[in-house]
UniProtKB/TrEMBL annotation:
SMART domains: TOP1Ac, TOP1Bc, TOPRIM. It comes from Chryseobacterium taichungense. GO terms for biological process: DNA topological change. Its EC number is 5.6.2.1. Residues 3-112 form the Toprim domain. This is DNA topoisomerase 1. Belongs to the type IA topoisomerase family. The gene is topA. The keyword Magnesium applies.
Length: 857
């Protein structure tokens, strides 16, 4: 029996720590938080701001196991992470497991190594209540904001929406950037580039130091350039240095992993978590750039042995953020002797962290920068060529150079040939090209993290979940923006001849950048109009500062909540009572056929176009927007085109064919089968021939690939990945199978396993009533429609086993359901009655989604 029980958050962490502790220690995992605010209801007493925590259903069995382990141990060591979240996990464990102060110890460490774990055991402390309270304040404030603002959105915008303190501010950043891009008016100017040749015919690329606003001025300059003798007017060589960046914080790791590896923030944090839990790196949620003396010494030793003493330059960095915890460290390797690890994906991130940390302790790179001025006294402006050469690579030896999205893509500095002042140069060509100014770039994930950090919004642990949430809520997405085309003028001077060309260039296209959705824009506009303070960047940052003050013991968390709620709740009541509904309504013009107004707005089923007014005698007609269209930018002509959909074509194989657009984009409907039209293809251009091609492609894709017990088996790919289909059963195909070359034995194996699983799923099933008793992960349960219900205990307080449940009658099961939900069966009847009573209203509401009335006209 182990005298000591150590509790950590994750099984991977438990496994690693267990290796370092002797047989007197047992390490168990809490799998994160064991309790939280309830999923249903606010779970907060608004008079006292006391949270009503509960053990989540999926953790009850685990808590029972932990309580049993606690009884057997003399001492319980709470070893969750040393941040506010980790401190709160330790506090919840201590409270729920009824741990007494004399029988518990709190230990913390920044890396999972033997030395760090043993040192932590030698230096225990108690739970830091200030850190716990800071986490409680964040959790409670965010729950209140979400629970009180979201119903206002349901009432004033659209049911099912949500708001949040940090997520709504993140959406605001993306919406404001998009509006800035829309309103941006590009300004044209002519940039002049020249390629010159020295006496040995080596090329020197140079740029004119002034741009021209007008085409005639650029042409006039080129005309003048024909007549001059270009000379080297000046050569200036200056020494310079480049310094390494500080070691990684959570934010900078997310940004660099995006730039260099193409990882999104969620992937980066998942991989970093694994690296930490397996003992390869220090704690990955930190805003400190500090390194321990031990780490500095370790890096120095590695640099000296690998690159030489001249490359070593030990230093420590200071964190700019006043709230950063300098006791924490930057993200770094735990052992500089480990240069790589086996897992390919983990190794990519590990290598990035390893090289960045080494580089931070290396000497500056020494460079020599050369600037050559080229011109003639007759010219109003001179050319300038810039180049540089690395004299000593220093930290670049380990880390290299990476350009950021802000870097000027045209500023490619290079090595220049040797020239002397006064030397005559020939021009090879001089080109004046029309260039347009560009708006600010849309946010990438890394860019959004950088901006949130810059504004002081959120903390290292919040960036990844915030970015995931705003995408899950469908307020923003990363859809591809198709580029537009414009004409540009290019004037070239070659061999004393001037040539003018009109070229086409693409602009405004984007991939993998955040774009707000229609509903995201409408929600943002409503919130910024009605909750200015909550959406204010400064306010959100000040809230973070309050959490920091609570963590340091300088502010009482319930007092902070009282101050916040006294201003917040009256605003909620005022907006709910007095604010207008928000639909993002935009009047596009009038329909030439009917003379009625054409509106773009948010409706019950999302973004749509409406012809006519809701209070007109003749009901309005509706059409859904296509993917890539936006109510803020769609034109009247584009809107009217949508009413040509859906349209009918001739039958194929006796089945009706039509072309339309739905929530998943444009489609060809063949009988009851919906077939997506390929991305980028205009549905209005689909004629009979093209529709038949699309249908034939679908037939080939859906053709049986094999049979199982005489029945055809087909395959496809869905939202959960590749699958095969047998009868009405969909079977996911795991990655270990070669999906493109499935053998008959593979298919038999997959379907056999699925059928066996399905056979074991039901203990009893009443299909007509849509009621079943099923085996679940945590034991048997009742399913009624989509709802799940618990199976009560028997009279002697024991649980039913599967054999006993096979004998339970349907009436008994219905009673169990009714005991948990009195209206379970009554609710099934209500919709039918309501539908009949409001048939006219329901029909009108549903017409917009189908758009069939519009098509018939």
């Amino acid at each position: 029996m182990s005298k000591n029980l150590v509790i950590v958050e994750s099984p991977a962490k438990a496994k690693t720590i267990q290796k370092y502790l002797g047989k007197d220690f047992e390490v168990k995992s809490s799998f994160g938080h064991i309790r939280d605010l309830p999923k249903k209801g606010m779970g907060i007493d608004l008079a006292t701001f006391s949270p009503d925590y509960e053990v989540s259903a999926d953790k009850k069995k685990l808590v029972t196991e932990l309580k049993a382990a606690v009884k057997k141990a003399d001492m319980v060591w709470l070893a969750s992470d040393e941040d506010r979240e980790g401190e709160a996990i330790a506090w919840h464990l201590a409270d729920e497991l009824k741990l007494k102060p004399e029988n518990r110890k709190r230990i913390v460490f920044h890396e999972i190594t033997k030395n760090a774990i043993l040192k932590a055991i030698d230096n225990p402390r108690d739970i830091d209540q200030n850190l716990v309270n800071a986490q409680q304040a964040r959790r409670v404030l965010d729950r209140i904001v979400g629970f009180e603002m979201s119903p206002v959105l349901w009432k004033k915008v659209k049911p099912g929406l949500s708001a949040g303190r940090v997520q709504s501010v993140a959406v605001r950043l993306i919406v404001e950037r998009e509006k800035e891009i829309r309103e941006f008016v590009p300004r044209a100017s002519f940039k002049v580039d020249g390629v010159f040749l020295n006496t040995t015919n080596q090329e020197i690329a140079a740029k004119l130091k002034k741009d021209f606003d007008k085409e005639q001025d650029a042409e006039k300059f080129l005309d003048l350039a024909k007549t001059v003798e270009f000379k080297v007017l000046n050569v200036e060589t200056k020494p310079g240095t480049r310094s390494a960046s500080a070691p990684f914080t959570t934010s900078t790791l997310q940004q660099e992993a995006s730039s260099r590896l193409g990882y999104n923030v969620t992937t980066t944090m998942r991989l970093a978590q694994r690296l930490y839990e397996e003992g390869y790196i220090t704690y990955m949620r930190t805003d400190s750039v500090n390194l321990s003396q031990e780490a500095i010494e370790g890096a120095k030793k590695q640099i000296t042995s690998e690159y030489g003493a001249e490359y070593s330059s030990p230093r420590n960095y200071t964190t700019k953020s006043s709230s950063a915890q300098e006791a924490h460290e930057a993200i770094r390797p735990t052992d500089f002797g480990v240069k790589s690890i086996g897992d390919v994906q983990l190794n990519k991130l590990y290598q990035l962290i390893y090289r960045r940390t080494l580089a931070s302790q290396m000497a500056n790179a020494k460079i020599e920068k050369t600037v050559i001025e080229i011109g003639d006294v007759k010219l109003p402006q001179n050319f300038e060529a810039q180049g540089e050469v690395i004299i000593f690579d220093g930290f670049l030896k380990a880390y290299g150079i990476v350009k950021t999205e802000e870097d000027d893509e045209e500023n490619n500095e290079k090595l220049l040939p040797k020239v002397k002042v006064g030397e005559t140069l020939d021009y090879k060509r001089i080109t004046a090209t029309e260039k347009f100014t560009r708006p600010s770039a849309r946010y990438t994930e890394a860019g959004l993290v950088r901006k949130l950090e810059e504004l002081g919004i959120g903390r290292p642990s919040t960036y990844a979940p915030t970015i995931q949430t705003i995408q899950n809520r469908e307020y923003v997405d990363k859809r591809e923006i198709e580029p537009q085309t414009r004409e540009v003028v290019k004037i070239s001077l070659t061999k004393d001849k001037i040539k003018k060309e009109i070229l086409e260039e693409k602009f405004g296209g984007d991939k993998n950048k955040f774009v707000p959705t229609d509903i995201g824009e409408v929600v943002n506009d409503f919130l910024t109009d009605n909750f200015k303070e909550i959406l204010d960047y400064g306010f959100t940052a000040r809230v973070e500062e309050s959490f920091d003050e609570i963590a340091s013991g300088d502010q009482k968390w319930k007092q902070m909540m009282t101050d916040f709620y006294s201003k917040f709740h009256p605003r909620i009541e005022d907006v709910e009572e007095n604010a207008d509904r928000a639909t993002g309504d935009r009047l596009l013009g009038t329909d030439p056929k009917t003379g009625k107004n054409v509106h773009a707005r948010i409706g019950r089923f999302g973004a749509m176009i409406q012809i006519g007014e809701t209070d007109d005698e003749e009901k309005p007609v509706f059409a859904s927007l296509m993917v890539g269209q936006n109510i803020a930018t769609i034109t009247l002509n584009e809107a009217l085109e949508l009413f040509k959909l859906p349209f009918d074509l001739s039958e194929v194989d006796g089945q009706p064919v039509s072309v339309g657009v739905g929530r998943f984009g444009p489609y060809v409907k063949w009988g009851e089968t919906y077939i997506s039209i390929p991305k980028g293809e205009d549905p209005l251009s689909v004629d009979q021939k093209r529709a038949e091609e699309i249908i034939n492609e679908k037939k080939i894709a859906d053709a049986p690939i094999a049979t199982y017990k005489g029945e055809p088996v087909t395959k496809g790919s869905g939202r959960f990945g590749p699958f095969i289909k047998y009868k009405d059963i969909f079977v996911n195909v795991p990655k270990r199978y070669d999906f493109e070359n499935l053998s008959q034995s593979d298919i038999n194996e997959l379907i056999d396993a699925k059928l066996e699983k399905e056979a074991n799923r039901y203990i009893q099933q009443w299909e007509k009533e849509k009621i079943s008793i099923e085996n679940g992960r945590w034991g048997p349960f009742i399913k009624f429609g989509k709802a799940m219900f618990k199976i009560p205990k028997k009279k002697d307080d024991s649980k039913y086993d599967a054999e006993e449940l096979k004998e339970v009658s349907l009436d008994e099961v219905k009673k169990w359901i009714t005991d948990q939900d009195k209206n379970a069966f009554a609710e099934k009847k209500k919709p039918a009655a309501k539908k009949t009573a409001a048939a006219k209203k329901t029909t009108t509401a549903k017409k917009p989604a189908a758009k069939k009335p519009a098509a018939k006209k």
